[in-house]
Amino acid sequence: MKPAKLSLLLVGAALLGSTSAVPQTPPARISVVTGTVLGADGVPLKLANVQLYRPYRLEDAARATAGPDGRFAIATPDTGMMILRLSGVDHSEATVPLYLDGTRTIALDVRLARYAYTDTLDKVQAIGDWGGFTPASAKALVRKADGRYSLSVATPSDTLAYQFIGLVATSGRQSVNGPRSDWYVYDNNGDYRSVIRATAGHATIVLDPAQLDRRPSTLVVTFRDPRSGAARLYAQFGSWNDIVAAYYDSSRAAHQRHDSLRFDWGPIVAERMAALGRERDQIRRGMLYVQLLQAAAFGAQLDRSVAQRAIRELRPSSGIWRFQYYQPELISYAFDALAGVKEWGSDSVSDLASLAYLDSLVAVQPDSNLRLMGLMGEWSLIANLKDRRRVARVLSRFESEFPYAPFTAFLMSYNAPARVWRDSQPVPAFHLASLDDTSVVYTPASFAGKVYLLDFWATWCGGCIGDMKAVHAAYDSLAPRGLQILSISLDDSPADVRRFRAGEWKMPWLHAFVPGSVDNPQMKQLEIAGLPRYMLIGRDGRVLAVDNELRGEALMPTLRRALEGLPGP
User: Fold this and answer.
1) Within-domain flag for 13
2) Is the CB of residue 130 less than 8 Å from the CB of residue 137?
3) Residue 24 in 3-state DSSP?
4) pLDDT in tens, 7-27
5) Is this model's pTM higher than 0.90 or not?
6) Cis peptide bond prior to 532, omega within 30° of 0
7) For residue 170, which of 33, 212, 334, 346 sits 20 to 30 Å off, Cα-Cα?
8) Is residue 236 situated within a structural domain?
9) Do 401 and 281 sit in the same domain of this protein?
């Protein structure tokens, strides 16, 4: 019997209900996300795209290009926590958290916010296919007499694709499309590349300030069923983002007033606890618990009974940890509240319980990047414990389970017996070009006889920004006593640093810039594989302290001892 005939017979048997001949396969569970993505003015965009992806995974679960009217529909058999990314030409991308269970259609309409363009265009640069769109290949534009900016690029092709760096004021987006283009192509990362035609081996990129739509706008996400679980999840997530933004605004205002932070978490915690009492959905309850843990990380008081319930409901296998905005090590704040006290640097009950929890999470979570985050959380706790046995155990796990992760390379160099930066050892040779005057090069000889702090940082490094207050306070207090600081930027371009220093943090000390970030050969020799990193050098040119001894509350006493010539703790 021919295969085709056999197939027909099997289909016939299935239609007649003969389940003994043909095993019945349950239909695949499919989630559908549909709706519209429009510009800020409510009209379709020149080009718009939609991606659906699972947090901690690089590949998409589904993607689609919106139609000419802005409509889209995507489907996936994947279930659990997902992120919907919506993007459009000349607009900032948006992300919407969704929980998919394979049983329903989610419909929503989105109006994207326009780019928030920078006030000045003099420092805007172009990247393109001439250099693989890498920041190292960025080219500066030239301002013309008519106020426009342009750049002529040689190309063997009949077209040229490009993007701009430094055109938008928000720090979250590095490169964006230019407003002048013959057509656009999606860059697969939430934005677009502008494509222009070339003539006789050259193409001219033009940036016309008159073409930049600077009208203010906001992101608007509307679920067609406002009572649906998806709408409630998004509202809960969005309201918490507003609270965190208000906290950071309050922190910046306190810094500018040279005053202590006054932010009342009491009503916010009470509101989230009241919401817990009403909420029955497991995922939304998990999000509320994690938000309470985040509040505790910011200094809020966490009730012991709430901490106990959080530990009970947020199991190591919980799907809420797959939502990439929530780091698993937050669970340590629940164990802290349960223990009633935090004993930093000791084998406290809280630390040991947190380690056991994270160990279980690493064992049961299916996503490798989430397991890596859990192991990184274990590392942060173990680093505080100063327990060499546990350090060796976790290092071994990084090396065997995540050998190619950048953080693994950082830890290996950070803990190697023959590492470059070691207490009491001579400072390794370095030659770092000044940020503002490349004819000036800083070397160890530049600081002979002085106490100085080397600060390897970048504007995109959250830990670096978190340390700014402590470093500024130390410099203000101790610079008159001889302390010098050299901050070495590993940013994409010097312009990133200049823009940053024009804001809240002035960083009024010496600066150097290293092109190529951690891939720079000198950074590899100096074992700078992650940020931030700090090294304190004494008057005799020897290393006095490194990294954790120079962060947060430990910074000031370490610097004072160095300036006074006192031995370490």
Assistant:
1) no
2) yes
3) coil
4) 322 233 332 333 344 455 555
5) no
6) yes
7) 33
8) yes
9) yes
